[in-house]
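dumping the sequnces here before i forget
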Amino acid sequence: MSDTPSIECVDVVKTYEEGRIRALGGMSLHVAPSEFVAVMGPSGCGKSTLLHLIAALDRPDSGSIVVAGHDLARERKLDHYRARHIGMVFQLHNLLPTLTALENVQVPMFELGIRAPKRRARAQHLLELVGLEDRERSRPAQLSGGERQRVAIARALANDPAILLADEPTGSLDSEAGRNVLDLLERVRADRDTTLVLVTHDASIAARADRIVRMLDGRVETTTKPRSASRRATALATT
Amino acid sequence: MSFASLVFRNLFRQRMRTTLTIVGISVGIAIVVALGAITGGLRQTAGAMIGLGGADFMVAREGSGDITFSVLGEDEWGRIAATPGVARATGVLMHVTQHGSNPYFPLLGIRPAQLAEAPPELLSGRLLAPTASDEIVLGARAAAASGAGSGSTVVVSDHTFRVVGTYRSGASFFDAGGYARLDTVQKLARKPGSVTIVYVTAAPGTAPETLAARIDELPTLATVSSVAEYGKVDQGTEIMDALNLAVSTLAIVLGAIAVMNTMIMAVFERTREFGILRAVGWRGSRIMRLILVEAVLLCLVAAFVGVALGVLAAQGVLQLEAVKALLDPRYSPDVFVRAVVIAVGVALAGALYPAYRAVRLSPMEALRHE
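..and the predicted 3d for all of it:
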């Protein structure tokens, strides 16, 4: 991994309702390129807010966030930044209900200036990647929870992002579907060298990350390396 | 999937609402089209009246309100005829009366010699004889409506006329009437020594405009060379124009409200979807374009339906004898252009605010929307 952080948050503060609710209280986080970071913590500790700020879906009250070399406070075209650098997977898939799986995956490509035939071919390839090549004509309502989340992952990869942000992507799935989705995210990250920040409540999922960041009251409480990551690092060092 | 297919998909996801909106707007556009066609027909009738018999212009009483109320004495007719540069001054008394099912039968009183100088196209028979007082030359539509032809008789204003010929002028109003001797019509109309209009033809070497300016100097008379000047002697077309404008404006306002209502509801329901689109990188301007194109497409469909309904309505109104006698609807290109312009105007007026609202929200606010 490179020394230049892929994501660097410094003293980020975010409040809601005119300061009455403090979601992030001076949060700092550094994520290296290609790193898989799991963010854990109790509900309301600011995990999702952190992802939303990194995705530039919202703006912090203060502090600095630099992602893939983009200082978000100075970035004027945040739509452009999201379209080119960020892939986002939500807990509740957030697919467009009137579009088929294939069409949903094509949606982010409109901003990339990709022409219709190429958009279609690329979406087909991504659905194949997530194992849904036979469901491309299905609408979200015709898919299972796990399938919808796989379509959402395919959509998140449509712009070939450097950063993949996943907000409890297995939270609404049964254990098997959740495991499959996580396997897929890990495989995609490994194949594409993508930085993955994943919010989860599930310790077994977090254990598969390179690093676990535990949050409390809008700040990082502890940062640990899971045993599996240590084993992977050891294996890498000896090869 | 193209941007256009996305627009179509969104537009017809609430079929009933979209259909009702299209119906609402298309009724407005239908009224605009029908009124436009009828007004165009009235203008055409006015234009035909101005150029009757190949005259350069007509002279009538200024401010008559309705051309049939214009009364010019024979002395005034004589002064017009005596104006330097006048080659021909043909006096016509227009007596509008009931005949058969036509409540607006124009019985045109004219001197036979003057009719012969600038005759309409004869379809059968002959023009008026110089002396016979009971002859009439019937317009083609009047002849067809009454089943009369050369040699038969017709009763107009309780007077029995012998039909000596039939003609076609090209203007429905005149084709639904007939020419008779001036003195006979003056008696029937109880307007002795009067005419309604004097048709003037300029002598060679005299510019009609110059001649019209000279005649305009005669007190309380007005010359009319074009439809635009027709309001000087008949306010019918002006009233129709004003009515047309008022109804069109009302149609636009009501249409815009309908579109705004539909688009506000559509945008409100889809707020979360717009949040998703923003989250995956769509620019606000692209979302705005999506909403505006949806509204424009909705209104263009309404324009298409409205034009069809408008033509049907105009043709339906024409089945009324009273209207049939007055005009032929005129479907000029500007009537259809106006329908499309109104449709696009209504779409933009109705959709701009909802579109602005949709893109003003931050992606997170939109995503939190339930």
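Chain B touches chain A through 23 residues (CB under 8 Å).
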